[in-house]
User: Fold this.
Amino acid sequence: MTAGAVVLLLVAVSAVVGWGRATVLYAPGGATTFSAPPTGVRSAFGRIRRVSAELYVLQRSLAEPRGGLGLKVEVAPELAPWGLWYLRDFEDVRVGQEPGGRAEVLALTSSSLQASPGLNVEQYGDVTLSWDASTWRQINPAAGAGEPGLKARYDLFDRAPPGDRPGQLNSPVDLALDPLGNYYVVDQANARVQKYAPNGRFLKQWGSRGEGEGQFAYTSATLGPTGIAATARYVWVADTWNHRIQQFTTDGDFVRAWGSYVDTKGDPKRGAQSPRAFYGPRGLAIGPGGLLYVTDTGNKRVVVYDENGKYVRQWGETGNGPSQLDEPIGITVDRRGTVYVADTRNARVQVYDARGQHLRSWGVTTWEDEGRLEPYLDTDRAGDVYITDPITKSLQKYTPSGILLAETDGNAESSLLEPLGVAVSPRDSRVFVADAALGNVLNLGVVR
Assistant:
């Protein structure tokens, strides 16, 4: 075999990425290979399908959606944004590079660690699997010092197992779509927000545990940030247990925060004295005019602000009367300004006009059961209302008047286990659900 052959042992992070960076190694022999010209490896990669975002040596992993088979290699985040290919290194390594691109090289630390043909080799379709990640080191000085266990990214619909790697989720609670179709997910257990492109490609993350700007509280009871809302310019996050709302640009730059702890006892008179303080705010929604609607859960009210955080109005008080609330969580506002609130402890959806005048309500009997009750809401272009129900592990679709139209418990790939956040695409009405137990966002398609 010539030095211009590419070893067939890899994972491509994305099939549509550019050639800004790529890891490409050549080997003189001793492994199953694809032939490719020494100066251009793109054609070889085009012949190799993606198997997994993370490949495991000689074992199957049910949590890995694309087979879970192969070599486990992880790459530092600074090397991952445009996709990397990971291949076995041999002596006489030559580095291949698409014109205008960069090559980052991963290789073994000594030739004694080389694998030979037939050593723990298994064939799965068009991928050869045989080598242990513990023998890999990063040797390109431009990439910095490296050790096994560095990190690569996951994309939104990879159905990766729960974790803390870029793009990977751990108890996702809520999600939002901006007008361009980008996804923003509250990755609760990692106390961060993650942003993905319309095709699901991981773009960036921000946040950590703490009380500072851009940080989110995470308590010993595994409680962290919850609701999220987005426009073309800004992203807002309910930093629930810091009792505040944080505002960022869509690139994750901190803009402002407001809020502190207050317990109004569900009394609107006390609430009027503390319009910018909260008791565990949860749900967020954007209404006409860019107004931000917040469910101040512990204070049993809805509070409205403009996009600069200026107080506009509020309504709600504790109780079970027609316009009263008890533990409101999810909230959504349709194009006409009608506001829908998940009044959880009263086991109903409350409906208001944009100024907080009560219009109607309908009951959700399953919310009377015990369990983690954090239903979130969204609406589609027709005004229909989508509600997650973690008690029944389902998503429900209602008319604006509360007539149940449809119910689903998942898609062809997975059943819902703990559905929380929901977002409906304004472009095509596809429904996306953040499932905290799965650690994934599921595309449920159009729910009919």
